[in-house]
Amino acid sequence: FPGPFTDVVTTNLKLRNPSDRKVCFKVKTTAPRRYCVRPNSGIIDPGSSVVVSVMLQPFDYDPNEKSKHKFMVQTTYAPPNISDMEAVWKEAKPDELMDSKLRCVFEMPNENDKLNDIDASKPAPVLNTSKQDGPMPKPHSVSLNDTETRKLVEECKRLQAEIMKLTDENRHLRDEGLRLRKVAHSDKSGSPTALALRDNGSNSLPSLLVVIAAIFIGFFLGKFIL
C-alpha cells in the first residue's frame, strides 16, 4: 500500500482458477477493522479470474512501526450443488483447503518523488531567447602571482612619487599665484602685463587638477586590469 495514508488506499488482488473445476474462495485478514475487501468471498469458474479490491482505511502512519497485518486467501473446490456458502466452509475438511498468505507492506513516497511532483506542478520558466547557447563565461580570476604583485607595487611607488612631485609643483604654483594676485592688487595702473600674469596663474591651477585626476583614474584602471 503506497502512502500517504490520509485517504483510502486501494490495492487490487487478482485471483485466477487454473483448474478445470469451480473453486470457492474467501479472503481473511488479521486487521478486519482496518480494511474493506470487495468481494471477500465467491466462486471462480474454471480458467477464469476475479479481481478483489482491498481498501486500506486512513490512519496515522508511523515509519518506526513494522506492519504486522496479514491476509490469507483460502480456497477449496466447490461441490456440485452449492446452496449455502457458509455450509461449504464449515463442512470442508482441512486437507481440502488451500491457504495463500500475504503480508502487508506500507511504503511512503521518497523525498525525490515528492520534489519531482512539486516541480511537475510548477509552470515551466520562460527562458530569455536573446541569450546565446553555450557554456557560461568563466569569471576572471582575482588572484595575482608574484610577478604581477611586484609590478603592481612598483607602479604604486612610481605613481606615489609622481603625486608628491605634482603636489610640490601645485604648492609652488599656488604660491606664485598668490604673489601675482598681490602684485595685481598693488598695481593701480592696471597694466596689461600684470593682468596677463594674473590670468596665467589662474588658468594653471585647473590644468594641474585635470592632470592629477587623470593620473588617479589611470592608477585605478591599471590596478583592476592587472
UniProtKB/TrEMBL annotation:
It is a single-pass type IV membrane protein. One of its GO terms (molecular function) is FFAT motif binding. The chain crosses the membrane at residues 205-225. GO terms for cellular component: bicellular tight junction; endoplasmic reticulum membrane; plasma membrane. Pfam families: Motile_Sperm (PF00635). PROSITE patterns: MSP. Residues 149-176 form a coiled coil. Gene3D superfamilies: Immunoglobulins. Keywords: Acetylation, Cell junction, Cell membrane, Coiled coil, Disulfide bond, Endoplasmic reticulum, Membrane, Phosphoprotein, Tight junction, Transmembrane, Transmembrane helix. Belongs to the VAMP-associated protein (VAP) (TC 9.B.17) family. This is Vesicle-associated membrane protein-associated protein A. The lineage of its organism: Eukaryota, Metazoa, Chordata, Craniata, Vertebrata.
